[in-house]
Amino acid sequence: MGDRCLCGLGITRCRLPWQVNGAAEETFLQDYHAALRQWQRKLGQSSAVLQDALERHRSDCLLSDPRGWLARHRPYPGVVERLRRCRHGGVDWVVITTKGQEFATALLEQGGLQPTAVYGREDGPKIRVLRRLLEQRQPVWFVEDRLPTLEQVTADHQLGGVGCYLAAWGYLRHADRQQLHPPARWLDHATFCAPFHTWPT
After folding, report:
1. Fewer Cβ atoms within 10 A, N terminus or C terminus of the chain?
2. How many whole angstroms separate alpha carbon 184 and alpha carbon 147?
3. Under 8 Å CB-to-CB from 28, ≥6 apart: which residues?
4. pLDDT tens digit string along 117-130?
């Protein structure tokens, strides 16, 4: 499993208030969304307000110290090389992220990566972006690092043609692999870096 913080909604660099206040980690692991709603009520802050604050902070950092800010964000080993092979092999790939497009594009450029497109939070929910992509081309394979997001995609009848993969190095709880059901597939790091014909289907 990855060692990234267990925090959805794209708020991955914030210190969580529940840590400061000493709330039990187990509460968040058992029912993340209920625990998050509880602490948002205590803070009087919505997800949208927190996300907007984070995006403003990112933009400020990119303006004031772009090199220093980007240097704090490193890709997983092998991922950049794998995506470069996609490009060289004529495989179109896009980025769909809950982060702002400006920030995501800056990270990609830092790694010398040139996706076909970058869809940020400005483009709407990932499901909406996937629907548009599926209308334009097939097949579409979607690699996601959060099980709840992947479950939303597999439950959408309009996205039945999308191959869905849960990245083993993402925002995972220990129970997520057991809760993963077809048509979604588990994708470990080694398989991600391997040729596409070796991926589970």
Report:
1. C
2. 10
3. 6, 18, 35, 36
4. 999 999 999 999 99
Query: Which pLDDT belongs to residue 12?
Result: 42
Residue 179's CB: how many other CB atoms inside 10 A?
A: 11
- Give the chain as a 3 state SS string: CCCCCCCCCCCCCCCCHHHHCCCCHHHHHHCHHHHHHHHHHHHCCCHHHHHHHHHHHHHHHHHHCHHHHHHCCCCCCCHHHHHHHHHHCCCCCEEECCCCHHHHHHHHHHCCCCCCEEECHHHCCHHHHHHHHHHHCCCEEEEECCHHHHHHHHHCHHHCCEEEEEECCCCCCCCHHHHCCCCCEEECHHHHHCCHHHCCC
Domain chopping of the chain, boundaries: 1-73, 75-198
Angle between helices 47-64 and 101-110 (to 10 degrees): 40
Q: Cα separation of 188 and 50, whole Å? A: 31
| pLDDT at residue 36 greater than cutoff 80 | no
How is domain 75-198 classified at the architecture level of CATH?
3-Layer(aba) Sandwich (3.40)
